[in-house]
Amino acid sequence: MKFIVSSSALLKHLQQINGVINANTVLPILEDFLFEIEDKKLTVVATDLETVMGVQMDVESKTDGKICIPARILMDSLKNISDQPLTFNIDKNFSVEITSDNGKYKMMGENPDNFPKAPEADDANNFTVTSSALLNGINKTLFAVSNDDLRPAMTGIFFELSKNAVQFVATDAHRLVRYKRTDATNANADSFIVPKKPLNLLKNALPDNDDEITVSYNNNHFFVTHGETRLSCRLIDARFPDYKVVIPADNPYKLTVNRTDFQSALRRINIFSNKSTNQVVLSINGSELQLTAQDVDFSSEGNERMNCEYDGEDLQIAFNAKFLIELLNASESENVVVELSTPNKAGIIKPTEKEENEELLMLVMPLMLNV
Amino acid sequence: MVQPITYIAHFDLDSFFYSVEVLNNPELAGKAVIVGGSRERGVVTTCSYEARKFGVHSAMPMKKAVELCPHAILVRGSHGQYGKFSKWVTDIIASKAPKFQKASIDEFYLDLTGMDKFFNPFQWTIELRQLIMDETRLPISFGLASNKLVAKIATDEAKPNGYLFIQHGKEKDFLAPLPVKKIPGVGTHTLSVLNEMGIELIGDILRLPKNELENRLGKWGLELWDKAQGLHHSTVSEWREAKSISTENTFETNTNDVEFLLSELIRMTERVAFELRQDEKLAGCIAVKIRYPNFETTSKQTTIDYTFRDDEFIPVAKDLFHQLYKKGTPVRLLGVRLSDFANITMQGNLFDDVSRKSNLYKAIDNIKLKYGKNYLAKGRSIK
């Protein structure tokens, strides 16, 4: 097997899928890329057994064939080779020889037949969304996903489909984000949980444009193909918590603030908060919002006042400032409305203006003092 | 600016656990008494001076101690009692001393620097010692010197039931005739290296060039050379809040019974969580420790959301245990530790009613406080 490929093009493609490979894998072959040539098309695949990601590119080649090449050494060498055509020569014993203008490099590949097979999209359902819609769905919710392995259901994004709509829901039990798109064609009532890692990879591979993307899924797997890139992963086999019942139906008090001003104030105040709780107290009196934080251990404190619109009784409520800052990041609107009730019940954050076809709802639980 | 003359006093309660036992049971006075764990596997926590004459010392395996001093009365320590007496002594010192550090349950450093303008520090310390002994009826010794190191060694020389003041400038004269093992940090390894070099007394160290000691012992050699001269710069750092709460249990016999180990783990987790709630803290980190019969000790910790609840600690502790435990291997010791404390501010949970659970734990703790820590436990941990 022999092929010629541009060094920079190969590196660019490999960088898209390199993130799949774990640093410490059980099976040595999982440290390899699978190279497969069929009719001058090179497909490179990486897997960690949960996530499989592949890219395709054109190469010059007279024959078809496949080989497993160690990812680390290949990436390291490509990063240090200037842009030029590289010739790959692979012999029967899986020995790989790369010829460049500068010289020859040799490494040991592995038998491609031992590379794990990618899951097939059997019995798959599918729906279509734009690339930017899917990208937004991931970007606006992924940060709220839990890292707690003891609660696997929360370690991914919950895809909740209904007639021509898809909702992306993520929570770590302290906050929750739900982002709804009403422009998903062919969607029907269904749901599944996709783990964090493949979504992170997808986020970096998808363009922010109107390209149509077909998302497929069956009982166990999730598949996305876009141009030369395809990704599949195992779904999280757990039941997502019944989040609808925890969304407060009527939080009577409504606080409207400028989103970026509020976020900047939180960032400044949070510097002076206790580092383990990031507690910031919001005191709302009439049309004035006061933010205070303190760290008793280091005798530091911060205090700011800002204007707001407020409809409700005077209230004092504490939040983890980090949570609020991250949530405010997920919105793009100029102003946000924070709906509150009592100091120990969840607050709702919503943008005041919204784009067509989308809907954003965020929930955050307060910090409770002296429970 | 002229450096003020420093005065550091080191107080040490004489065979503290034994003294407490004597207060509880006066018949023990004047007899050879060994306080410690079980006869088979425990170690000596302390012993009376009568038992020391037979070569018994603290940290010695109980088995060996009994061999050396077969007629000794063995007493199982009662930890709650010791804490109470220790706190009593701490309170007395806190009410008198301008700055002090509690180095352990029975050891205190006091920084008296500057007091010499108003009092005679030696006289003041003698009076403090008398006050402690009058109030608590516990014997205590002290050493007074220009730094912590010399003060500690002086206390050691003053014991039992005495005191010693090493005048400024006399540190070297005081240390020189003492055996090198009196310097804290000199253990069996250092001792054998030093003996090999022909060093027996602290004074011998000073006759060597500094770099020769460094060649043999590295950085520690330099430190040791300074210490031998009576130089030491560590300051008295004031008493601080506990940074972790832990408990561990060495089993009577090694066991690989996972059910039993898990029930022990739950019992210990409930115990540290109870302590945590009594301190009105939340913990953000939990660790599990396992020691195998060959003394190989492993531990694993993880960060968690700040909490004080048993039902949040226990699954994590079990998970850590399973990650850590080498299946089938007998276990000698199991331990649980909580750390990274925060003040009571609970992050609300969308799917779990936090305030209802905290009421539950308040009720549980009230029962434990009234009837004893072991009155109420999870079914799983009852044997």
Largest sheet of chain A: 9 strands, antiparallel
The radius of gyration over CA of chain B amounts to: 24 Å
Record field, number of beta strands of chain A: 26
> Major beta sheet of chain B, specifics?
5 strands, mixed
Structure description:
The complex is a heterodimer of chains A (371) and B (383). Chain A has 371 residues and is of the alpha+beta class. In chain A, 16% of the residues lie in helices and 43% in strands. Chain A has three domains: 2-114, Roll (DNA Polymerase III, Chain A, domain 2), CATH 3.10.150.10; 125-244, DNA Polymerase III, subunit A, domain 2 (DNA Polymerase III, Chain A, domain 2), CATH 3.10.150; 247-364, DNA Polymerase III, Chain A, domain 2 (Roll). Chain A has a nine-stranded antiparallel beta sheet. In chain A, strand 24 (347-351) and strand 25 form a beta hairpin. In chain A, helix 5 runs antiparallel to helix 6 (321-330). The N and C termini of chain A lie far apart (69 Å). Chain B folds into three domains: 1-168, Reverse transcriptase/Diguanylate cyclase domain (Alpha-Beta Plaits), CATH 3.30.70.270; 173-228, Orthogonal Bundle (DNA polymerase, domain 1); 244-381, Dna Ligase, domain 1 (2-Layer Sandwich). Helices cover 41% and strands 23% of the residues of chain B. Chain B has a five-stranded mixed beta sheet. The termini of chain B are far apart. The A-B interface holds A 150, 171, 173-176, 241, 243, 246, 274, 276-277, 279, 296, 318, 320, 344, 346, 363, 365-371 and B 284, 305-306, 315-316, 319, 340, 342-352, 354-355, 358. Chain B: The active site is at residue 107.
Brief write-up:
By secondary structure, chain A is of the alpha+beta class. Chain A is built from 6 helices and 26 strands. In chain A, a hairpin with a 3-residue loop joins strand 14 (212-217) and strand 15 (221-226).
